[in-house]
Amino acid sequence: MDDKKSKNDNKQLINIIQAQYSRLSKGQKLIAQYIINNYDKVAFMTASKLGEAVGVSESTVVRFANALGYAGYPKLQEGLQELIKNKLTTVQRVEMANEDYSDDSTILSKVLKSDIDNIKTTSEDLDEKAFEEASNRILKSRKIYILGMRSSFTVAQYLAFYLNVILDNVQLIRIDMGDPYQQIVRMNEDDILIVFSFPRYSKQSHQVAKYAKSKGAYIVSITDSSFAPVAPLSDNILLVKSNMASFVDSLVAPMSVANALIISVAMKETDDIKKYFHDLEQIWEQYVVYE
């Protein structure tokens, strides 16, 4: 199954399993039944753990994935993750993590490896032309609005902080500053909205992006899936891998992409940055800002 077909079929995965059920072997039918009843757990189980839970071999699990048209079990697992990652409650996330993170001595290595994998996958899959277009649009826009809700606000704030060093037309949309619509009411077709959106996708982020779209703004979404609610509203999507570790969302790869955007814009505004920092250094020295 190619990637395009896989993505299109993710939402129909349970229906596919049910449609193929009569053609499956006895062991594969046990797997199918288990997935239909426990797909939220299976999405984060290895092939060996799934086989152990069902009472079949790991090779039977792999053959089951192949029977559904997937290149291997990891591809089937990705499909299941697409189905459920926005539906899992925080309690469910913690319950699932108990199995993988129960040994305290392995937590550090597991989390670091997961973050490394997220960055590696993002590096391999991110559309370079989409990234270049996003960078150029930032420079061409009359005003740059940046949005991120809940944990994504941290990355949005980071991007806004450094873009403010380079440019003087950056506005971070802040929920603690009142109604977000009031902050973007003057937005028009010459502006850009950069929105960070990761599971569990914030409904308000989608609503603000929808309003920005109605104002004609160019929308860049930095998100983990083409099925993210904000994706259909976007003119440009930067897909970033963001697997979760327990109830904590991994924002390492989104932060890295934000870093790359900052550097890309900065390299096109080198002279202005030099002058800016020259003036800042004089102020810092005058007021003894640093030890």
From TrEMBL:
InterPro entries reported in the protein's UniProt record: Homeodomain-like_sf, HTH_RpiR, RpiR-like, RpiR-like_SIS, SIS_dom, SIS_dom_sf, WH-like_DNA-bd_sf
Residue span(s) of domain HTH rpiR-type: 11-87
Pfam families: HTH_6, SIS
Boundaries of every SIS domain copy: 134-276
Identification of the protein by name: MurR/RpiR family transcriptional regulator
Keywords: DNA-binding, Transcription, Transcription regulation
PANTHER family, sorted: GLUCOKINASE, RPIR-FAMILY TRANSCRIPTIONAL REGULATOR
Lineage: Bacteria, Bacillati, Bacillota, Clostridia, Peptostreptococcales
